[in-house]
Amino acid sequence: MRAFLLCLLLGPGVVLAENCPPYDQQVEKRADLMAALRLAPDEMTARRITGELWQVWLTAPDQRAKDLLDEGMSRREMLDFAGAIIAFDTLITYCPAYAEGWNQRAFARFLQGDYDGALGDLDRALEISPDHIGAQSGKALSLLGLGRNEEAQGVLRDALALNPWLPERHLLENPPGERL
Q: Of 63, 60, 38, 21, nearest to 131 (Cα)?
């Protein structure tokens, strides 16, 4: 009833958009996990901590955002990249400050070979969440896909500073401490 009254007051053609609620990025928990990850003594410990980080990153702002995220990820797993991107587009429109929406759309684009599109999404995800290691490693892989190897190496080094056990660490050329 309230929406109907607002439409009457605002005039014809006005569409009221549903707003994404403020997103709790669990900053303290993320900071604790990031600190633990940098100090992880071995790869298995790092994997466990990374799994906990993914739980934080995948925590959506509300049920609608979670449903859109789940739909996009499910469609991507079924190789329905067009459907996945539509779901992620809707998520990003609904919750533009939710980094994981951008990161997941980037992954779908990456799998299609759209490295430029993936980079734009990854840059946006990293603006929102600069310590998002998944977005950093995705950016490094996208840059490699574009042949921008030197830039990719810098991004990969940044990601390795956050997670020394990153699975993509084998892509690093001349690891720190080695002579060129």
A: 38
Please report, for the chain, the start and end positions of each structural domain, with discontinuous segments joined by +: 26-57
Q: What is the pLDDT along the chain (180 residues), one digit of tens a residue?
A: 433 333 433 343 333 347 899 887 788 999 999 999 999 999 999 999 999 999 999 999 999 999 999 999 999 999 999 999 999 999 999 999 999 999 999 999 999 999 999 999 999 999 999 999 999 999 999 999 999 999 999 999 999 999 999 999 999 987 555 543
Distances (CA, A) of 71 to 29, 56, 90, 91, 174: 26, 18, 11, 10, 40
Cα 31 to Cα 13, 28, 56, 63, 106: the distances in Å are: 45, 5, 11, 25, 24
pTM of the prediction? 0.85
| Cα(140)–Cα(161) distance, integer angstroms | 14
